[in-house]
């Protein structure tokens, strides 16, 4: 019989020299076999020596693989057969021996993992924790370098039997292993989610609640991640550990003594390792299929939701469990757009203000609504919601919850709302309670965006788009193209390659003057007359080819004016000379006086007047002199255009400006992309549009992959189209002032941003989770009488001088009065008795009255 110390010494020697201590090992091996036979006779007996020998054999088994080939199977069989009756200490020792051999890769994983999952049935908390930690770490180590799909598939298939085990503790521990592997980003596939979902039909309510918490918890993690993305980098920087700075690295190697340097270097290594670990976790939780929420990965969500609702409607569960099941079923219905029509009447019986956690029930109701649910199925639920929550006798908090819930319902299914009901609910916009009025106005605002025709005329707002209507039930619009790709095609066809052309230009640049509006108006007329030549000049000015294009246009127009004026009368020659002089002055860039500008504006008039005069002259109503005058006026107009256009072209075509550099860079990128596409597809340009590099009728998304830059530009183009529509609705013209244009542009941009945000929200509203707190208003809590009295007294502090005069008179500031002194004066007993008699007699007289003559005696 060897002691523990002797076994440890022999173990150390065997590891150093296995061949030299083989005889001692064989002696201990025969001792182990003898103890094993004795143990089998009475397994429940505490055998401390047997446990020590087993652990010794596990430690040295790697040195003698042939002799110890069946050792692991013997220990596993012993645990599998007698795990319920074994002593707890010996059982943990045997499990530790198997874990040691598994960590050394002496035992296959699928040999011991089924046994470990069966050992979860033992009523031993320490053993269950030991097994749980080993299983998780073992599977994580197996998938550290690369995914071990063979092992993962085998273990996950076996987990179906584990989570369906009749023993509640074993099933719950198996479920804990699965959720922990999901949380650590080791198993992030659909197979894991479906194994977890199968545990929802376990007979134990605790296992069911654990599954529901898993699905709800993954929703919270997804929302936390989206909030961090929306909130910017501040939250992300706080969550991610900061790496060492240059000063820290320098101090660790160049400052202090040798001992302090070693401490700093160790601390530096720990910080660097912590940052690397955080980066590995972040990369493991990155994009791809692994970033989906667990609900998205269900194989058959319709069958899962129906079975889960069947268990919910069967009853027998606690209210907390039912509430969690409601939330999960509603999320599955909303995300996958399922039809479980019996779910809405089931929730209807919980819709009451006095119901416990009614806001969570209403949140589940809202999540389960989508556009494919028949309005007839939702109409009774909406009616009960309005009848129970929105009426004059209800508390303001209850009314706020009801109105907000109605708004969320109609955003997901607009067809459920009726015109009469909407009119009644809109009347609460002037309710005395602010939160109720705000909720009613938010409902009105929602219908302004989805169906303004149902609102009263006074509630539609200014410039309501009456064409907005929800689609009929079952009317699905199948997208044949990428949303907004036609805007990108139009921008490329017009030659707008940079981001400058994606913004609305109202002539608000500092380089342009207030008179540019008139020039812009004349430019439209001249483009109609000029035709293709003007379009080419505009394209040249957009491409930023310098000042020569603009100045040459002015010179050509002025020469035309001189040729037209040749051969005319002297009076007409004077008018032409005046116009030519003005043109030369504009060409040289000399400043003109205010009188000259006013004269030019008076001569020019408006575009509409010019059109009208030209039409009259073409009809023959005027004489030849009038025709000559109109030609001269046209020449003067062209001269004015020539004076103003080069200024804008010069401002836009500065070679050193950022806009010019951006434009040139975008053009170079577009040319390089077109050349690359032409090389890849030699026949692409044949039969295509001029300059498009694409066959006619072929969409741009069918020709090439759209990059992130393309999608960003599509977003900008959508914004621009909405801004232009808003400006056209507001009636902003070129004759408006700069301030008016600026205000209109800001309002249009804000309206376009809100419209895009609403469109994005309505697109993904079915997948968004509804929080119960969002359905409640911010009402002040009512105080009881004691709290109100304390508040009143607190407000009176320091305001004694503003009190009533009577209270000030009663308050004594000096000594006692004479009457009080007489009362307190010490009197003889006889005098005191006489005073009491007089007082009593006076009291009796008051009770009897004035006309009392005494009692009548007969």
UniProtKB/TrEMBL annotation:
Keyword Coiled coil: yes
Biased composition (Basic and acidic residues): 239-249, 644-655, 664-682
GO biological process terms, semicolon-separated: protein transport; ribosomal large subunit biogenesis; ribosomal large subunit export from nucleus
Superkingdom of origin organism: Eukaryota
Boundaries of every SDA1 N-terminal domain copy: 56-431
Record SUPFAM superfamilies: ARM repeat (SSF48371)
The keyword Metal-binding is assigned to this record: no
InterPro entries per the UniProt record, alphabetical: ARM-type_fold, Sda1, SDA1_N
Residue ranges with Acidic residues bias: 220-238, 500-564, 593-634
Protein family per UniProt: Belongs to the SDA1 family.
UniProt subcellular location: Nucleus, Nucleolus
Matching Pfam families: SDA1_HEAT
Keywords annotated in UniProt: Coiled coil, Nucleus, Protein transport, Ribosome biogenesis, Transport
Region of interest (Disordered), ranges: 220-268, 493-699, 796-858
Role summary: Required for 60S pre-ribosomal subunits export to the cytoplasm.
Taxonomic source organism: Chlamydomonas incerta
Bias (Basic residues) ranges: 835-858
Parts forming coiled coils: 738-765
Protein's UniProt name: Protein SDA1
